[in-house]
Amino acid sequence: MTLPVLIAGAGPVGLTAALSLHQHGVPFRIIDRLPQRTRQSRAAGITPRAMEVWERLGVLEPMLRQGVKIKGMRVTGAHGKELVRAPVEAPDSAYPFMLGLG
Hints:
Blueprint: E1 5-8, H1 12-23, E2 28-31, H2 48-57, H3 60-66, E3 68-70, E4 72-76, E5 82-87, E6 98-100
Parallel strand pairs: 1-2
Antiparallel strand pairs: 3-6, 4-5
Helix pairs in contact: 1-2
């Protein structure tokens, strides 16, 4: 009897681990601290390195079609005053942006 691998967390890392295990025929079970589905995004910003892993797993293309390319971030405070501006850069990656998924 093969026991499943327990994956703690249903965010991008947990789901990527589950996908890889599934592709190799390894049973798994995902648990999360939340007792029900959340209405908020758990993949607000997928990093370039994560997209490289997804590409190797063969699942990146549909994500790129559904997601939004994020090339920078800006945080504003009260009255619209800009507090932080940060570009997203990964010049050594085929994906020099973050991917936003709803």
